């Protein structure tokens, strides 16, 4: 009886789905050399009208989660991203962590590296890799440099798909 209950409970537990079932509303990416995790979520209803994707960037060395979004400024141009969060661990002030406000997002999908096609990512499989140019440099010049670039940590701008929630 206990064995039957154990099997039934295991079947009911949530399971991470494979990359083929991931979209840009539930894809999870990571960087093995830094511990950074990029989790995509549905776009909040109260977001800007031109926001096409939402994500959280978890940086465990600093115990920090930054909030990010991907926007198309004129509705049909390049997808640009933004990442915001506390300026320092003791600050209540919010900072942007990318030097420019106009940094394009790139993805490595079935056709190779290209600008992120959000419409394809929402409808079909999430790209295998996401490139957020200038992200690591932005963190290097922030108050989180000491923790995020310490010891064996090696943050970059590239995130690899590991599953979806």
Describe the structure.
There is one protein chain. The protein has 165 residues and is of the alpha+beta class. 16% of the residues lie in helices and 34% in strands. It is built from four helices and eleven strands, in the order αβββββββββαβααβ. Strands 1, 2, 3, 4, 5, 6, 7, 8, 9, 10 and 11 form an eleven-stranded antiparallel beta sheet that branches. The N terminus is likely disordered.
SSE blueprint:
Elements: H1 2-12, E1 27-30, E2 37-41, E3 51-59, E4 64-71, E5 80-86, E6 94-96, E7 103-104, E8 106-109, E9 112-115, H2 118-123, E10 129-131, H3 135-140, H4 145-148, E11 158-164
Antiparallel strand pairs: 1-2, 1-11, 2-3, 3-4, 4-5, 5-6, 5-7, 8-9, 8-10, 10-11
For the residues shown, what is the average pLDDT? Answer: 82
Largest sheet: 11 strands, antiparallel
Rg, please? 17 Å
The H/E string reads: HEEEEEEEEEHEHHE
Oligomer: single chain
Q: Which range best describes the helical content: under 10%, 10-25%, 25-40%, 40-55%, 55-70% or over 70%? A: 10-25%
The number of distinct structural domains comes to: 1
How far do the termini sit from each other?
A: 31 Å
Strand content: 25-35%
Task: Count the DSSP helices.
Answer: 4
Q: What is the tally of beta strands?
A: 11
Structural class call reads alpha+beta
> What sort of overall outline do the alpha carbons produce when their principal axes are compared?
globular
